[in-house]
Each structure stands twice: as C-alpha cells, then as structure tokens.
Amino acid sequence: MIAIKIIAAIANCFYIFMLMIFVRCLLTWIPGLNWNNPVLNALRSSVDLYLDLFKRFIPPLGPFDLSPIVAVFVLVFIRNAVLYGAVFLFQILGIIR
Question: How far apart are CA 61 and CA 58, in angstroms?
Fold first, then answer.
C-alpha cells in the first residue's frame, strides 16, 4: 500500500512540474507582466533552469519557441522511466505484485 502512494507521489511531482511549464509558457503571452513578483519570479527561475537546457539546442522558429514542447516530451519520457523503474523495484522487493 505504501509503495502505491510513493509511486503516486512521484507521478504527481512530475505532473506539477509539467503544469508549471504550461503556466510559465502561458504567462509569457501577457505583455507587461511584473516578473519581480516573488511567486512569478520563483516560477520563472525554477522552470527556466529546465527549459534553458533545450533552448540551447532548439532555436526559435520565428516567433515560436518549440523548446517547451520538446522539454515536456522529454519530461514525460523520464517520468515513465522513473515510474516503471519504481514499480519494477517494488516488485523485485516483493512490496507489490
């Protein structure tokens, strides 16, 4: 039972980070937004650490930045690998069947 809760918590952490990426991308469409707000600044700094990895390799196509799309796909791949790895580990340990 505890293993299922651990796996759900890991999945929720990935979901929350994907939601943060989505909110960050939507907020860039609002002109004149004050990024000095502590909440917005924390969102920007935490998400941009991950997005900047992809912005180095994927140049924007005109006004469109496709790096968040690729970043989310990679994050989904990592999430699936971590979750399947956790399930496999818990099965080996005999915690879940």
Answer: 9
Retrieve residue 56's tokens.
């180095």
How much is the pTM? 0.89
Task: Return the structure tokens found at 4.
Answer: 């299922």
51-65 residue pLDDT tens: 999 999 998 888 888
| Domain region containing 17 | 2-93
Evaluate whether 51 touches 71 at the Cβ level (below 8 Å).
yes
Say how many C-beta atoms besides its own lie within 10 A of residue 46's C-beta. 13
Work out how many domains the chain is built from and give that number: 1
40, 27 contact by CB (below 8 A): yes
**How far, in Å, CA of 21 to CA of 75, rounded?**
11
Q: Do 3 and 95 form a contact (C-beta atoms < 8 A)?
A: yes
